[in-house]
Amino acid sequence: MSEVFQKATLDLNAARSELHDLLSLTGAEVSLNNLPAGAAVPFVHAHKQNEEVYIVLSGSGELYIDGKVESLKAGDVFRIAPQGRRAIRAAAADGIKFLCIQCAQNSLKEYTDTDGVMCENEKAPWH
Amino acid sequence: MSEVFQKATLDLNAARSELHDLLSLTGAEVSLNNLPAGAAVPFVHAHKQNEEVYIVLSGSGELYIDGKVESLKAGDVFRIAPQGRRAIRAAAADGIKFLCIQCAQNSLKEYTDTDGVMCENEKAPWH
């Protein structure tokens, strides 16, 4: 049984940080990636069960997806279904920092208002 | 049936951006949050089914979790199990930018090497 709360500190500029094992995650793998200018993930891949969500935090680059190329810039976010054939690279003159979240497709039942439970009788010390 | 690939562009400095509906996510809700200096989420909450993962991207603040207070700074990452009673605030003199990922607890079966499938016969145009 893992603890209710588990915390760690990343170097936000590391080449790659993976959170699943670091935080004992049970619902996702999350990676933070920094590809330097001109670098590319050297293979095309798909997934069996997992949907991926990407969040481009800074820099720019390109995504190869199912035979097409999409340009990427800071603020871009995208979802790829498991069968999508994908590869990513940084721009030739600019690195790219992005988060990638893997979750099992169709695994989320409720969220936010419908999964959240208000703790009416409990206040944080600043309230 | 949703598309294999879906993309949008966020304002990374918006108060809150939610990705579930924007990208037709089926395995997670992901929010990007910017609390200005001194701001706090005005309630303590827990969850029914969902584990949450937080990634502090910049700034600083505090997390209330099950009766304790943890300080937060850029690079901090943490997991909270569904039953954890939580609230977050920005530091009095500093905003905080963080991602929050909600996924169903125990929903991830395989990931990365074991869920990924190499597309051996397919190359991105830059290879």
List the helices and strands and how they pair.
Two copies of one chain form a homodimer.
Chain A (H helix, E strand, L loop, with lengths): L4 E5 L6 E3 L1 H4 L5 E7 L9 E3 L2 E16 L2 E6 L2 E5 L5 E5 L5 E9 L11 E3 L9
Antiparallel strand pairs in A: 2-3, 3-9, 5-6, 5-7, 5-8, 5-9
Helix content of chain A: under 10%
Q: What is the correct CATH architecture of the domain at 27-104 in chain A? A: Sandwich
The CATH class of the domain at 27-104 in chain A is Mainly Beta
**CATH fourth-tier homologous superfamily of the domain at 27-104 in chain A:** Jelly Rolls
**Rg result of chain A:** 17 Å
Care to describe what's here?
Two copies of one chain form a homodimer. The first copy, chain A, has one helix spanning 20-23; strands at residues 5-9, 16-18, 29-35, 45-47, 50-65, 68-73, 76-80, 86-90, 96-104, 116-118. Chain A is mainly beta and 127 residues long. Chain A has a domain at 27-104: Jelly Rolls (Sandwich), CATH 2.60.120. In chain A, strands 2, 3, 5, 6, 7, 8 and 9 form a seven-stranded antiparallel β-sheet that branches. Chain A is globular. The mean pLDDT of chain A is 96. Chains A and B meet through strand 1, helix 1, strand 3, strand 4 and strand 5 of A and strand 1, helix 1, strand 3, strand 4 and strand 5 of B.
